[in-house]
Design goal:
With about 190 residues, the protein is α+β, with helices and mostly antiparallel strands. The protein is built from 5 helices and 8 strands, in the order ββααββαββββαα. The protein is about 35% helix and about 30% strand. Helix 4 crosses helix 5. The protein is globular, with a radius of gyration of 16 Å.
Length: about 190
């Protein structure tokens, strides 16, 4: 998977990258969000706000190291169908663990697998916030099979997060995710 994008991509800095570090694949994204860090932190860590951009459902989060972070996705129907199609029905329920919490800067947790770790870092950037997302994939991750799917998933979720922060939430759209998946797949073949 590439870290450089072909020229036809509108804003290459918005696209995620994948690299191998110590034998593990790490997906990375960076976004500059025109909102204060505390507001972004709340969107990332308050269950009622998370449910707006992460997908409808039940979120149970104990925001302490070792706390539980359980996600049960119940909608929208397009998202439920896509999750089942891509990862199976069991993927609708995740039993994650909070690994690190440093409000309002760092939130790290497992993601669907104890060996899958997501780290959110928030840094003030003037009146805005620089968000860095790193997802260390489990050892079973295969870039050829899973790379474009997972990159597109995070990309779409980060778009959802930005729209929620802007006060303009829109429902998850399978067409947008499929377009992003195809773009990431095409970029992988340009290297």
């Amino acid at each position: 998977m590439p870290s450089n994008q072909p020229p036809e991509v509108e804003n290459p800095r918005e696209y995620g990258t994948v690299e191998q570090i110590h034998g593990r694949w790490v997906l990375r994204f960076e976004r500059r969000l025109p909102h204060p860090r505390e507001r972004v932190w709340d969107a990332l860590t308050q269950p009622e706000q998370m449910a707006v951009w992460l997908g409808q459902g039940d979120i149970d989060l104990d925001l302490v190291q070792g706390g539980k972070f359980e996600v049960r996705t119940t909608g929208p129907p397009e998202l439920v169908d896509a999750i089942i199609r891509e990862a199976g029905e069991d993927a609708l329920v995740q039993h994650n663990t909070v690994l690190r919490v440093e409000p309002p800067s760092v939130f790290e947790h497992t993601f669907g697998d104890p060996d899958s770790v997501v780290r959110w870092e928030l840094t003030p950037d003037g009146d805005s916030t620089l968000l860095r997302l790193a997802h260390t994939e489990p050892p079973t991750f295969a870039t050829s099979k899973d790379g474009s799917r997972d990159l597109a998933g995070w990309h779409a979720l980060l778009e959802q997060l930005a729209q929620v922060l802007d006060g303009k939430p829109v429902p998850w759209q399978v067409e947008r995710w499929e377009k992003l998946r195809d773009e990431y797949a095409a970029m992988a073949h340009t290297d």
